[in-house]
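Q: What does the assembly look like in three dimensions?
Context provided by user:
Components: two
Sequences:
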Amino acid sequence: MAFCAIFVPDFRLQAVIRSEPVLRNQPLVLLDGPLPTFRVVAVSETAQRFGVTPGLTKAAAAEFKGVQIRLRSREQEAAAHAALLDAAWSISPRVENTAIDLVTIGVDGLESLFGSCKEIALQLQSRCSEVGLQVHVAFSENIETARILSSAYAGPTIVPPSQEAQFLKPLSVDLLAPSEELAEVLRNWGIANCGALAALPVLSLSECVGQQGVRLHAIASGKGNRALILAEPLHTFEEFLELDDMVEELEPLSFLLGRLLDQLCARVTARALSVRTILLKFELQPAFEEAFDTSKETVRVKQRAGTFRCSLSLPRPTQDAKLLLKLLRLRLQDKPPNAPIQKIWMRAVSDRPRPVQGGLFLPAAPDPDKLELTLARIASVVGENNIGSAEILDSHRPNTFRLQKFRASATDSRKPVAPVSGKPQPESRQAKFGFRYFRPHLPVYVALAEGRPVKVNWKGNTGKVIHASGPWRLSGAWWEENAWQEDAWEVELNFAGKNASASGVYCIVFDAQQKKWFVRGSYD
Amino acid sequence: MVDAQDSFDPVGAQNAGVELSRLLWVRCPGIDPALRSLDLLLHGGGFGLVALDLGDVPPKLVRQVQLNVWFRMRRAVEDTSTVFVVLAQETNTKSCASLVLRMEKEATEWSLPTQKTGKKTAHTPGCLLESSSHFAEMVRSFLCYKKPLFIDRPKVLESANATRFHLNSNKYAKEDLTPTGIVSAVGSP
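A: Here is the predicted structure of the complete assembly.
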């Protein structure tokens, strides 16, 4: 069985560079440690040329002009590690989460899909590059050999069967990660590389340094094989971004969101999935107003940062980062955060992509992705609650409905008319009245005679009732707080003079709860 | 369905045969958001029918919509399978419209005339709103040439492009008594 180890050199640096690609070719150092004694923990190759070394204080590192200083971010490292796993899963389902900067995959049977080991290596490097990581790749029949070679050589390194010892021979024993005691013993013995360690007699080594020495000897000899411990694939993808300068405006924020969405969509696409839901969380700038209010004698303590949450659900999963960015922008335009943004978390919930086959004889329907964007744009004009498809509620109260999200379907959802008693029913061709609602209902003054409306005064115009049909008494929900009771009349009104055009048939309602008359609407 | 005055009746539409799950209803608080929504809808494309309801908007407001707006809408649906319908009290789209129809309500029919409701009781069980008769006329069509007709001209009932039809009440229509919705058709459009 063949294995491939994927190693990310300078992982902590790459995790930061992945969020800020501008830093890739710049001298970069990372600080970490307890406040306020930050120390340099990682130095890029270009920063090393400037003379920056690990262990310097923040002030000392800042003395080097042109060196970019960032704080180590464990959230970004977790996201980079998840991206590395996703890139590995895009090649093989057998993936071991070996370390935060190293994953190992089983490559048996992949030749028919990708070709030789070299082509698999190129695919791996390409896919890792898509998720923002530069990796070393090594192939071997032995997991431990592949792991050590990937961290030693830029690669791709391909070890032919039973030649592991030759490849490991010149490598330092420090790559085998011995304990400090054992490393000191080996140093005292003059054992510097794996070849020297492999040449030692196993029995004597066991007597001197114990089982750890035997294990390292087997690894150095290219015989330290073991089984792959498979990792469980996750269907949630997370990205994180911490900002040096807080963002207040939507335009710069959309650049950052676009970058996160690109990374998320690259990871989701690598796993052959699509984004169903995007969850967004902002950590906002703490409120300082009360802290600086001396009149209240409050303690000048930094207030706890607020958070802003926003979610975006799609009716059809998509991999289009630009579409998601436009939808998020529209969402944030409607409901912007109320303070500058410090940190951004973005989580994508994935789903299987659903390709839709259109039909030649189906009614026209808009493209789901395009429709989603159109609906979001219209919602930003008329409001989110004013667009959708109406759903009639199970109630006798007139004008009872709710708007639900409109979903275009390429399939014909119309139900065929079920024949009754074996005979097909003829389609009803009766044209019905149309009704126009006045929302909200208009208050009117109604003159009654013998309990029947005879005149209706409406916006200063008086209409004479020619015909009246009613009262149609309706009531409901008397067991709840929002009980309703009304007497509805259908009246034909005749307005005289310049308001003659307003003559028509109206529905007027006496609301028994409010003791008032209203016009519900008119018959078209 | 772009509803400029939020006057759409979903229950009535469902009774008339509209499948509400396939109908996108945009409730607009005025003519300006209605036109902006309409522009987005038409340029988004893909809909079989887009209707703009300006029926309750005062005509003097609709008249203020510039002609280039209607040309823009027409341009958006040209060479597509989308049908764009504008309902208004007056024709405002001018030469942008491929077809202009004028529809008017002529009379309302009640089951019992007023003078026959002799008993002065609180209830009028015999008097029901039954139907209304309407007049429709094709004013202009790109597909069918006819003499130009002005809106304020008296109705020409004998015109080959005019027709009359009845609409029945939703609640009280008796299908067995009324054989068909279109009871009189003068000529064929």
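Follow-up: Chain B touches chain A through 63 residues (CB under 8 Å).
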